[in-house]
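Weekly structure sync, notes
Attendees: PL (lead), two postdocs, one rotation student
Agenda item 3: pending single-chain targets
PL asked that the sequence for the first pending target be pasted directly into the notes so everyone works from the same version. It is reproduced below exactly as submitted, 314 residues in total.
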Amino acid sequence: MSLRLTNSEMTTFRRCKRKWYLGTYRQLGKPESVAGNPLAIGTRVHNGLAAYYLDNSCHPAVALRAGVEQDIVDYPFEAEQLRKDLDLCDAMLTGYIEWLEETGIDSDIRVIAPETKIEVALFDDVTLLSKLDARVERISTGTRLALEFKTAQSLTAPLPTLQIDSQLLTEHLVEFLALCDSGSEADAAASRAQGVLYRMMRKVKRTATAKPPFYAEEEVLHNLDELRNHWRHVVAIAREIVEATRNLDNGGDPHTYAYPSARSTCSWDCNFLDACKLMDAGAGADPEGYIAENFIVRDPLARYEGVDQVEESW
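Predicted structure, written out during the meeting:
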């Protein structure tokens, strides 16, 4: 079987195999609202920044407004919430440009490539796929990094685990493997692609009562041992996913091969909570009926479409 593995799938599989079974294996999802949720806001901010780093003459708020105006035409019943989202995202993006001007923080950055995706072979028919918000180089040091934007409520909460964050490690790993595939030795590849520049933006309008700071960045570097160990982790998870998929394809019981891992966070971080309860409820429950009424089939990799594939490593 073939598998295009992403950090998102690995994270879901480790968190809860039933969530993976419903969301990835069966490709189910809630019909997504274009407004009023963290994913929609994060996507709008990312799209604005992607336009800015593609062409510095394009203010990110301009691209933001164009997208929201089109959505208001396409989804008039969500117009009120779309305008609220526009106000928040506009404040975040305008403030980001002001932060760049005040700190001069981008003056030491050369953009090598805007938003891009990379896909590398892992083993057999399994590949590892990742999307980078941009590729940059520090002019003063020559350090080459993947630029990652994150909208967040707090600028400090993510810091203790950034060094072992699987998303950052995976973004770095695909760069490293792509360089190795192009003929670089491991030491040379590790010195060329050195880590991730992690930029955080607080989800606030920066009103008079809001307390700064609103933006921050952390340079997260990984050494060769960290990359090798993460490669081991990724391969191990991939083999577990391949095995679970094979068992399910062969008619295996989802209760055996894709069992749930309930936590208190399920109430807000999983769309499948009610379906999950019904799947275990036994006689009289109709989980498939509930799923048919409340979920649609969608492509978990849709967000990678329309993003250029890297052909050459830097």
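Discussion points:
- The beta strands are 3-5, 28-29, 109-113, 116-123, 126-132, 134-138, 144-152, 195-202, 215-221, 296-297.
- The radius of gyration is 21 Å.
Action: rotation student to compare against the earlier draft before next sync.
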